[in-house]
Amino acid sequence: MQRGISREQIERVARIYKSNQDASQALGINMRSFGRLCRKYGVETPYVRRRRRDVYRPLVSLET
Known about the structure:
The chain is mainly alpha-helical. The protein has helices spanning 7-16, 20-27, 31-41, 46-55. The longest helix is centred in the middle third of the chain and has 11 residues, at 31-41.
């Protein structure tokens, strides 16, 4: 039996899934543990990726 979750597994689910909840469910762990593992391995979570993307998206179209 495998012990723990590898960095590669964390990176893969963080890249594939749209939310932290979906990613953590895919690994069979809770969201808090998923967030901790991402911080431990320096992996960007789906939540952070979405927030980063939304910061650069304009709120209102400048075209009139």
